[in-house]
Specification:
27% helix
Length: 189
């Protein structure tokens, strides 16, 4: 079990899948969301949570002021946990749950809706797959969208596609988080 750190769902316990996921620790979520609130990235944000696991990042974002969140997860046991967590907080209308492979979802045709994206793949996720995901994701993003990419601090920095700018990164224990901005005009030639 984990819990929502702050906001309207503060203190609510969330179930986590028994296996196949690596939940972001409460300490990292607290620090991460504190930074996002300082940057005013949460108010009315349209959130995409790729590799959603328990849905904790997307749920925490809505708890702290995001308008809605789309939770994308491939594993059926994790989808079941996400649905259970959403029912427990009683706000299913603010969330969309999609069972899909994150790379395939990113590379599907999408409407440019998202202003904040969490990408939290397994630590052993191949760098080439992350770069493919980032390249395909642009059709889903609004200009100046912020991407929050979580990895092991031993993971090499990705080769950022042209439309992305690394704003900063932060290490919390074993976790490294890259904050990356998408700029639409850099993809228009």
């Amino acid at each position: 079990m984990t819990r929502i750190v702050a906001g309207k769902y503060r203190g609510r316990s969330l179930y986590v899948p028994a296996n196949g996921t690596r939940p972001t620790s409460e300490r990292v979520r607290e620090a991460l969301f504190s930074r996002l609130e300082t940057w005013d990235e949460l108010r009315d944000a349209e959130v995409l949570d790729l590799f959603a696991g328990s849905g904790a990042l997307g749920i925490e974002a809505v708890s702290r002021g995001a308008a809605k969140a789309t939770l994308v997860e491939f594993r059926q046991n994790a989808i079941n946990v996400i649905k259970r967590n959403l029912e427990a907080i009683g706000q299913t209308q603010l969330f969309q749950t999609i069972r899909a492979d994150a790379v395939k979802f990113a590379n599907s045709v999408g409407a440019a809706n998202y202003t904040l994206v969490f990408i939290d793949p397994p630590y052993d996720f191949p760098a080439a797959d992350l770069e493919t995901l980032l390249a395909g994701l642009t059709s889903h993003l609004k200009d100046n969208a912020l991407l929050v990419i979580e990895a092991s601090k031993r993971t090499a920095e990705p080769n950022w596609p042209k439309a992305y700018t690394l704003e900063s990164y932060r290490d919390w224990g074993e976790t490294r988080v890259w904050f990356v901005t998408y700029r639409k005009e850099e993809t228009d030639d």
